Amino acid sequence: MSPQTLTITIDPDAADAPFEQVRAQIADRARGGGLPVGFKLPTVRGLAEDLGLAANTVAKAYRALEADGVIETRGRHGSFIAAAGEAADKEVAAAAETYARRAKRLGLDHGAALEAVEDALRAAYGTDG
Fold first, then answer.
1. Would you say 34 and 3 are in contact if contact means Cβ atoms under 8 Å apart?
2. What pairs with residue 80 in β-bridges?
3. Does 4 fall in a domain?
4. Angstrom distance (rounded) from CA 10 to CA 19
5. What is the C-alpha to C-alpha distance for residues 102 and 104, in angstroms, rounded to an integer?
6. What's the domain count of the chain?
7. Is the full-model pTM beyond 0.70?
8. CA dist 4 → 55, 118, 127 (Å)
9. Do 28 and 71 fall within a single domain?
10. Domain assignment present for 3
C-alpha cells in the first residue's frame, strides 16, 4: 500500500462490527506510519460508498478515531491523521491515572504500585531495568 492511499477491507463474517473494522484499520495504519500525519481521509459519504456501508457506520468510526486522538476534523476542510505522539501520550496518561487509582483502591502503597509497573515494563520491553 502506498502511504498516500487508503485501502480498507470489510469482512462481513468477522466478529468485529464494520465500524470497528474501519476504526481499527485506520488506527493501525496511522500508528504504523502507513498513513502520515496530515493525510486527508476520504469524506464519510465517500468512504461509505466505496465500502458499501451506511454513512452512519463510517461516521461512527471517524468519531471513535477522533476521540482516540488518531484523527482530527477541521470542519468543512475534512478529517486528517493527527500527530500520533499526542494521541499516544494522552492514552498512556489516562491508563496511568486509571492504574494509580485502582492500585490505591486495592490498598497498595506507592512503592508496591510502582514496583508492579516496573515489573510489567520489564516484561513488556524485555529489559532488566
1. yes
2. 40, 72
3. no
4. 9
5. 5
6. 2
7. no
8. 23, 39, 36
9. yes
10. no
Euclidean distance between CA atoms 13 and 21, whole angstroms: 11
Q: At what angle do helices 84-105 and 18-32 cross, to 10 degrees?
A: 110
Name 14's Cβ contacts closer than 8 Å, sequence gap at least 6: 21
CB atoms within 10 A of CB 31: 14
Would you say 63 and 26 are in contact if contact means Cβ atoms under 8 Å apart? no
Grid coordinates belonging to 128: 532488566
Judgement on whether residues 89 and 78 belong to the same structural domain of the protein: no
Are 65 and 108 within one domain?
no
Report the distance separating Cα 57 and Cα 92, nearest Å: 28
> How many angstroms separate the CA atoms of 71 and 63, rounded?
9
Q: Cell triple for residue 94?
A: 489516562
What is the dihedral sign for C-alpha 104, 110, 112, 117? positive
**pLDDT tens string 74-122:** 989 999 998 766 666 777 878 898 999 999 999 999 999 999 999 999 9
